[in-house]
Every structure is written in C-alpha cells, then in structure tokens.
Design goal:
The N and C termini lie close together (10 Å). The protein has a six-stranded mixed sheet, with helices on both faces. The relative contact order is 0.15. Helix 3 (76-84) packs antiparallel against helix 4. Helices cover 45% and strands 14% of the residues. It has helices at 12-25, 56-64, 76-84, 102-117, 131-151; strands at 3-6, 29-33, 45-49, 70-72, 88-90, 96-97. The chain is built from five helices and six strands.
C-alpha cells in the first residue's frame, strides 16, 4: 500500500494529516510536484520532483500507482485515470471518487470548461477550504487505512 499525493495544489494541512497517518499506520507517502517540497525526516515520507509542464506530475502518478493504492488529488481527470488502473482517489475535501461518480464529475468539468471557453462568465469557484473539509478528509483517510490494514 502506498499513498501518492498530487502535491502542487494540495493544502498544507492535508499534507500534515497525511504525514501523521503515514507514521501512525506505517504507510509510505510520496508527494509528487514540479517544485521542491519540504517533508518531515521519515523513511515513510518522500517527495518526487518532476519537470515543470502540463500534467507532468499527474502522468508520473498514473505511471507509478498500483492497483489498490490511494491517490490524493482534486484533479478529476487524474482521479479518473487512477480509478481506471484500479486505484482509489480521494480529494482534499474528503470525497472519494469512484467508478459510480467519476464520469459525472468529468462531464460536469468538461461542460464548465466549454462554457468558460465560449465566453460565458463564470463567477465564484470552489468554496474556501475549511475545518469541515479538513475533518471530512481525515475521517475518510482514517476509514480507508483502517479497512486496508484490516484486509492485509
């Protein structure tokens, strides 16, 4: 079992939760980003710096993730590829992507992108990351790791 993190846009508080979970459950965590990242000194926690460029980190994660492993990402196309490979994808707000919901998310993402590119002004964006999101993420991660450790 390994946890891969799409780290370029991952909130710091989520990384901290992952670092504690890695130590508590003896689960390796790798942060993948196109910049250098600070990680705690631990044999379980590593970072992988990739070249700058569109989807370079995503492609590296897809290449390395194995069936049953977990990827932390808010990137819906990356989550879809992970699920197609038999992996699990959890976003920083604590929502698991699944075969049942990923196509709907991709369709909505593509629709919104089409609207923006056709000149429709879109206001807003995702709500501010908050304590509820942090708690949801921590709970979902803990449940996932508990199930995984019980199964192995």
């Amino acid at each position: 079992m390994h946890i891969w993190v799409d780290a370029d846009a991952c909130p710091k508080v989520i990384k901290e939760i992952l670092f504690r979970a890695a130590e508590r459950t003896n689960t390796p965590v790798t942060l993948v980003a196109n910049q250098s990242l600070q990680t705690p000194k631990s044999p379980l926690i590593t970072s992988l710096r990739v070249a700058a460029g569109f989807d370079v980190a995503d492609n590296e994660i897809v290449k390395r993730v194995a069936e049953g492993e977990l990827v932390i990402t808010a990137d819906i196309p990356l989550a879809a590829e992970v699920i197609d490979k038999g992996g699990h994808a959890l976003n920083p707000r604590g929502e698991f992507y699944s075969k049942a919901n990923i196509r709907e998310r991709l369709n909505m993402r593509d629709f919104m992108e089409t609207m923006r590119s056709s000149g429709v002004e879109m206001t807003g964006g995702p709500p501010t990351f908050n304590q509820t999101d942090r708690r949801n993420f921590a709970n979902q991660l803990d449940q996932f790791l508990t199930r995984h450790n019980k199964d192995n």
